[in-house]
């Protein structure tokens, strides 16, 4: 323990400076990553991805997993090169160019705004399935009010709450796996449990459909990069950060693939779903009855609430940091309530944006916009990793990072046209803002520290 403390102190500059303790093992990092992504990550996407892929969700999950594992290697490598930060903005800014780093951060800002919207949409959709007599917009408004209200009074989800929710999700998924296998075996016999149809059905397998659906299914893995934020607390960051990011992507792919594989066996014809956004609930009903339907609905609402709380709080802190750095008007975005000690104006603004987004956007469109920003950042990190590995003479690693970049470009480019138009408008706004901020790109961007937090 004393040797670890000494090493940490050296990295901090002096032994007298306070520093983070290097106590996290590989298992701790993997556990944290699974909590971030959540074991039911593929459930909200199932119906829409099933429709887009024409019944090949498992294939899209597998393709996205390859892209994310390659990208995870790049993130793990960059986390050891820049151990005091954990974001695409830092890696691209320091590895390529500060202005490109700002744009990578700007792309991630879109995620910060969209994630609370995405969770509000899905939470309201699920509640609408549980209580169909209450209009969707009423649930959306209630969801936004709860999230914003809790954040305004400073209530945050604790690590223990996340662990309890993770255990509950795992139990419900375990029950689903058992009852789904029993259902398929009862209808089609034991041999029906093993099928290639969810992976490849010749009559409906089209490359264009697969690539479009993969662009959505990739959302299953978004969040794995959060592991890199723990670099300063890992016992062996040079070894464990990369391993943890790759293993979390692998475990997520296996678990998500199993869920959607069984869901496709239980409900083989995607065209008969009445509501694609909440299609997995119908699968749960068919396999396990009303009790499993309700159990999935409850954990989906709780997961959306928890993720929405964290997402809105993170976005509010991002805006606060940018306001304090005068990258945004400080009187508004840099304001902290005297009593609540939270960024009041930012939370109110984000609450209004979340309700407007939940009212105007579909779940699919919101998910695509999250992926637009995320995959631009992934592409940037992979490019930086290619440059780094090449300079280090690590050819195989350089080729893997290059393959990750190509995969991410293909997934990003196959996003639906409306989402790309909206995303490019956001990027254009960021480019104009950057030009003003840097007086025609003649000086370093202000506020990058805020974007990178």
Give an overview of the whole structure.
This protein is an all-alpha fold and 453 residues long. The protein has a single domain (29-452), classed as Amino acid/polyamine transporter I, CATH 1.20.1740. The chain is 72% helix and 0% strand. Helix 2 crosses helix 10 (237-266) and helix 4 crosses helix 14. The longest helix has 46 residues, at 279-324. It is globular, with a radius of gyration of 22 Å.
* Overall shape: globular
| Quaternary organisation of the protein chains | single chain
CATH class: Mainly Alpha
CATH topology: Amino acid/polyamine transporter I
Tell me the number of helical segments per DSSP (H or I, 4 or more residues long).
17
Strand tally is 0
In angstroms, what separates the terminal alpha carbons?
29 Å
Strand content: under 5%
Helices and strands in order:
Layout: H1 2-12, H2 26-37, H3 46-53, H4 57-81, H5 88-95, H6 98-130, H7 136-152, H8 159-188, H9 207-217, H10 237-266, H11 279-324, H12 330-333, H13 344-360, H14 363-391, H15 395-413, H16 417-437, H17 448-452
Keywords:
single chain; 17 helices; disordered C terminus; disordered N terminus; mainly alpha; Amino acid/polyamine transporter I
Describe the structure in brief.
By secondary structure, the protein is an all-alpha fold. It has helices spanning 2-12, 26-37, 46-53, 57-81, 88-95, 98-130, 136-152, 159-188, 207-217, 237-266, 279-324, 330-333, 344-360, 363-391, 395-413, 417-437, 448-452. It is globular.
């Amino acid at each position: 323990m004393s040797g670890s403390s000494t090493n940490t102190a050296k990295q901090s500059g002096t032994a007298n400076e306070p520093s983070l303790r290097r106590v996290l093992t590989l298992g701790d990092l993997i556990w944290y990553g699974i909590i971030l992504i959540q074991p039911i990550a593929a459930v909200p996407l199932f119906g829409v991805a099933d429709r887009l892929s024409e019944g090949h969700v498992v294939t899209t999950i597998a393709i996205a997993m390859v892209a994310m594992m390659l990208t995870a290697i790049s993130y793990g490598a960059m986390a050891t090169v820049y151990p005091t930060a954990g974001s695409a903005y830092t890696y691209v800014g320091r590895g390529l160019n500060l202005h490109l780093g700002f744009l990578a951060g700007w792309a991630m800002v879109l995620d910060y705004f969209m994630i609370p919207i995405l969770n509000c949409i899905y939470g309201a959709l699920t509640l609408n399935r549980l209580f169909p007599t209450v209009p969707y917009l009423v649930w959306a408004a209630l969801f936004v009010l709860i999230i914003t209200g809790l954040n305004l009074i400073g209530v945050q989800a604790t690590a223990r709450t996340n662990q309890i929710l993770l255990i509950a999700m795992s139990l419900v998924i375990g029950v689903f796996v058992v009852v789904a296998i029993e259902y398929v075996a009862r209808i089609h016999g034991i041999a029906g449990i093993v099928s290639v149809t969810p992976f490849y059905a010749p009559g409906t397998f089209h490359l264009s459909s697969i690539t479009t659906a993969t662009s959505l299914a990739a959302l299953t893995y978004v969040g794995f990069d959060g592991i890199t934020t723990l670099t300063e607390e890992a016992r062996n960051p040079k070894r464990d950060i990369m391993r943890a990011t790759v293993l979390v992507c692998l475990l997520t792919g296996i678990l998500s693939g199993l869920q959607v594989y069984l869901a496709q066996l239980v409900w083989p014809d995607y065209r008969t779903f009445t509501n694609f956004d909440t299609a997995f609930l119908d699968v749960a009903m068919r396999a396990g009855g009303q009790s499993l339907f309700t159990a999935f609905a409850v954990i989906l609402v709780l997961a959306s609430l928890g993720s929405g709380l964290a997402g809105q709080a993170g976005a509010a802190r991002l805006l606060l940091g940018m306001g304090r750095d005068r990258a945004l008007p400080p009187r508004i975005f840099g304001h902290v309530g005297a009593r609540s000690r939270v960024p009041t104006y930012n939370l109110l603004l984000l609450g209004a944006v979340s309700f407007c987004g939940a009212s105007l956007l579909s779940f699919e469109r919101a998910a695509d916009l999250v992926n637009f920003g995320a995959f631009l950042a992934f592409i940037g990190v992979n490019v930086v990793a290619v440059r780094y590995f090449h300079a280090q003479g690590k050819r195989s690693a350089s080729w893997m990072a290059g393959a990750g970049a190509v995969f991410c470009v293909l997934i990003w480019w196959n996003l639906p046209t409306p989402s790309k138009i909206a995303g490019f408008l956001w990027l254009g706004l960021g480019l104009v803002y950057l030009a003003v901020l840097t007086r025609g790109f003649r000086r370093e961007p202000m506020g990058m520290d805020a974007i990178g937090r």
